[in-house]
Records
---
Amino acid sequence: MGLITSLSPQIKQYLVITGNYWAFTLTDGALRMLIVLYFHQLGYDPLSIAMLFLFYEIFGVITNLVGGWLGARFGLNRTMNIGLALQIVALAMLLAPTSMLSILYVMAAQALSGIAKDLNKMSAKSAIKLLVPSDEQSQLYKWVALLTGSKNTLKGVGFFLGGLLLTLLEFHGAILAMICMLTAVWLFSLFALKEDLGKAKNKAKFSELFSKSKAINVLSAARLFLFGARDVWFVVALPVFLAATFGWDHWWVGGFMASWVIGYGIVQSFAPAFTGKKSGQVPNGRSAFLWASYLTIIPALIALALHYDFYIQAAIIIGLLIFGTVFAINSSLHSYLIVSLADSDGVSLDVGFYYMANAMGRLIGTVLSGWVYQQYGLEACLWISSAFIALAALLSLALPQTAEVPSP
């Protein structure tokens, strides 16, 4: 307790924000795996499962855009706590009897969850910009990498938790357990977050929702294609492929997906060690181009292995691990660049716009994941993934090409 009280106010707020974000992410990952596995078990086809997440992604797009304005105008503490409350409501909706869990009803619950997730994420990422001095870019990169990496590690634990809870408690028991945990976190967060966190000095205008910065617009477009490339094969196609083609049960699918995301999060946390921090540099547009170029090759190689029936199980498992490592570095680079490029006054406006593009990429990827897999199989999903990453790499060439760590 003495150690906690001796910490600076900035560190205390960082810990509250990170803990809040962790708790939310755990339930978000578990809920996604629960829905994919449970509705696959009920006999839903891949496209129908993908449609369950349609409103989740659509409302994520809208929320990031409007949420950035709300955060700048009313404070990031409010947007973060509203996000937690909405997730609790979304989970409660899924306690309805199985007979009521129609596609439309689950889509509505997922719409609330999508709003909740992106309010929470936008608030957390924006707040870090305000807690690190502007001349400490290396420290900012480190904090962003830790937050993003730890979040994805927890999301992976959530995937594992979702498969485990479905096995042990069944669907409704799993949902109830998550509601109890998240409610406790929400009550603590109401009292722990500073009321003025993230408010812009000048009242943010609604007309300022769209970024006027060329660099942020380009980075947002690259982010759209990067995350579309991941989700086009990862969200629906891969777990259904593992269950249907390899015959894996819920435990194995959930555990494998969880292990992937946990490893992905760990790599994100250590991304600064891979991207030039030791040489006194932080990421720039050239870094983003190079790492996206490396990533482009990986789904193409997995697709070729599928096409030629070349050790398919090994190709997918090993390929996915390599993809996760390189994708994690790409994601961490982007996460640092947006926080670094964003305007400090009303930071959530720029961050919200960027994560709106991120959500749009997930939306496109999710819909394509179900439809393309159902029509053409996993190989086609992988080729689309490779093409999307190539577009992200080309866009990165238009980003600022210099970003040196300021001298101490």
---
Amino acid sequence: MLGTLLEHLDAYFLKKNLISSNFLYLLALFFIVCGLLIQPLPELLQGYWQILIAPSNLLTDYFAVGGYGATFVNAGILMLLNAFMVSRHAKWMTGPLFAALFTVTGFAFFGKNLFNTIPFMMGAWLYTKFLSIPFKKVLLTALFSTALSPVVSLVSFGQGLPLAWGIPLGYALGIFVGFVVSPIASSFLRFHLGFNLYNLGFTSGVLAMVVASVMRSFKLAVEVENIQVTVNYGPVFGFVILLCLFLILMGWSANRFSFKGYRALNREAGTSVTDFVLLHGSALTLVNVGILGLLAIAYLIALGGVLNGPVMGGILTVMGFAAFGKHPRNVTPVVLGIFLMQHFMLTHDPDMTSAILAALFGTTLAPIAGHYGPLAGFLAGALHATLVNNVGGVHAGLNLYNNGFSGGFVAATMAPVLETIAEWRRDRAERSRISES
């Protein structure tokens, strides 16, 4: 009887992609229900309003702004709406789309909300109408472009303008950014040769730098924030661990109750575009998502850090990109390089939130370790640790993907050098082979 059941499960999972829109709807509802259980409804509604009107630039921890329950509801709402958008415009769920949805949901814990993300979708939609192309061609870019959500909130609520002026101005700026981000992102991909997984983080950093410079020129208030909770809240840990275990169990059962093939997934370099859903199936992808999530939590616990909104966003982003380039083998050297460099830096302590975020988001450079080896990944992580803390002031926290901005510079600096060394080694090996023959 068990054999018959396994055969039916095999047939079902081979025909269906586990990472479907319905699956994401259930995850979104899980977020919302958790929020409703954590915080009384009147307090939750008031907290959610505070989230919507917060300036939201880095680092604005929504746990501190609106409370734990309101923040979970905010994350669930964004995942629900974005999953619906993907289901309307994409034929199937890919690794990049999964990464985008988890990233948007993660940043709903510190910077993104329903109010400040809508303009970017509107701008992307206008861009498709201008070029007469289907929206699905810019869907991925539109989702990631919400990295600049603080621009909308800061102009709308952070300048002391009457709402009748501030909201239209903030929305107009967001729509403009959403319109221009697609062509700019395509050109910047060549800058780092695909070795920075957060390409939109680099693109958004450049755009945010321009916006911040213009605002400062007109004496408008634009400063980096640092609002965060400083103590752990047990139910949040329970939620993340339960989510990771559920994803591993789901993937393991769908993979015929085994981890067969996971070693092959870990041999992928991870350079853009490496879609694990397409290459290895949704079952092993979910296993990878859950495992990387547990490793991220273990790193946080080992350092005695606080699971606040930004760190929660970092963990969910790592989990999202476990479908699109990251796995334990290529992220470990990068994290190790970041951690050890932080120990040598006199101005930084590895258990600080910013240091933990650098390690989590710094895994954007995982393709360097995957393609050029662990030593290259270690050096990339070390360089990232020194750079990431010095670029936030350039865009004044208007770019939520600050590590993607830093990672773009690291990848653009290291990739050409590493490729030159690799070519020299290949030429030497070829000459040696010819001389021996």
---
Amino acid sequence: MNELRIDHRERDDEGGGVPRWVWVVLATVVVLALLGGGAWWFLGGRPLAVKTAAATAPRAGGGAGAILQATGYITARRQATVSTQLTGTLTEVLIEEGDRVEKGQVLARLENGAVRATLNLARANLASTQAQVAQAQAQLTQAAADARRQDELSASGMTTKQGAEQARTALASATAMLEARRRESDAARAQVAQAQVNFDYTTVRAPFAGVITVKAAQVGEIVSPLSAGGGFTRTGVGTIVDMSSLEVDVDVSEAYIGQVKPGMPVEAVLDAYPDWRVPAHVIAIVPSADRGKATVKVRVGFEQKDARMVPDMGVRVSFLSAKPAAGADGAPRPAPKGVLVPPQALAQRDGGTVVFVVADGRVQQRSVKPAAGDIGGQKLLPDAVKAGERVVVSPPDSLKDGAAVRADDAE
């Protein structure tokens, strides 16, 4: 019986706790759950890399694709800093920035006391010489009459030949004196003209019609056509710009200058007015290159002028392959409503056409109805998408509304 007895250390505990194998199973389940969650986060929760493109507003006219784009600045072909011909003190300045002036309009006046006195003296000298001319003319008339009478008397033998010769000599002398007085009068008249020019120089006038952009001097300041040391003498009264001569100077890379031709159509967009597209054209290609920037300057002329255009304003220009189409009245056709997107941005979901718009790191699925026909190889979406929004290009079949994405391009 003793051999059949089981030692208490070898007996199984009954009701004394959870079996060890249960803990092993629970630990295995927890580890598998953690691994599954990590795999889901790494594979499914990570943002999907996609390529995007910006939706753009169509141009007015349509059908004219840009083959090259560049930037430049508005410049004025006629611009002048108006100065004086004489050194003097300003007594009047009749301009302010923004004033529109006409050709010949008075802009400023200098102190003119000295030149006025010189002009009056020249005029007095002219009057004196003119009086001397009149006196010499009278003497010549008298000498001519005396010579005629002496000739008649000499012919009749009533006087000597010497008297007739003396009369003729007096006539020649009077003739020479009259000519001298006339030359003196001409010199005096020239002095008057010179004094008048100097007097007119005290009045500064506009050389052409335009707009005042800079007022450079004030009443009481000394202005001079030449620069003087010390910084107390102005060299100009103001700057005038002919707004009708505005154009764009564009620097085009040497690698693409071959695509630009004189007369080709251009579309200009001012940085200050990004929604305003101005028709333009290439005036000329300046035959000189900048070796530092490896660019060639191109002159672009506006086909319409506007008060919003001002010198030195930044401009983005697009060189077009063809002139935008015009309507029956000759004006460019208005831009169609909507935005343009690449054809690859369209996808089929649940029997309809959709696009995926990226916003705040996630995609929004939007139903669209593309317009018939393409514009420049792109699809026109009349609604649902706004200009500037980015759409996913070639969206994968697995992409769903609200999915997290990461734009994997720099377009």
